[in-house]
Amino acid sequence: DLERALIKGLILAQPNNYSEALQQGLGGRPPHYLLRAREFLQANARETLSLEDVERAAGVSRFKLFEGFRRYFGVSPMSYLKHYRLAAVREEILASGGARSISTIALGWGFSHLGRFSVDYRKRFEETPSMTQRRAARRS
After folding, report:
1. d(CA 97, CA 140)
2. How far is it, in rounded angstroms, from Cα 57 to Cα 115?
């Protein structure tokens, strides 16, 4: 079921208490090449990355990389990166207590088109980045 796989993929994009159980539900423990690719994406999430960079880090073909990501994480490699970046931006907005500029945070995480970033953020979190920032400012 595509919806279930997508939800699991979104949850798996940010490590949490349920990551291992969800990985098993999607297809067991990911092979080593997928773990390398995921670690590479997370370690270099602030950089401009291409699919070729991820392929090199994983040491496998594009087809194998896509198949593995879809099977174990429920999304493509670049979608995984986008979800990871969106979660990181959200965490940084909340941690800053609303004091840092959303643009600065988003650009720092590799989002070069701020309008597209805002649309993706709203789809993912059901609120705009500025709504998150206002909420963070009220809490601090």
Report:
1. 6
2. 30
- The mean pLDDT value for 99-109 works out to 96
Q: What gap in Å lies between CA 78 and CA 65, rounded to an integer?
A: 11
| pTM for the structure as a whole | 0.79
The whole-angstrom separation of Cα 94 and Cα 91 is 5
Continuous H helices in the chain: 2-12, 19-27, 32-43, 51-58, 62-73, 77-95, 102-108, 114-125, 129-139
82-139 homologous superfamily: Homeodomain-like (1.10.10.60)
| CA angle, residues 60, 68, 70, in degrees to nearest 5 | 140
* HSE-up of residue 107 (Cα within 13 Å, Cβ side): 5
Domain boundaries along the sequence of the chain: 2-77, 82-139
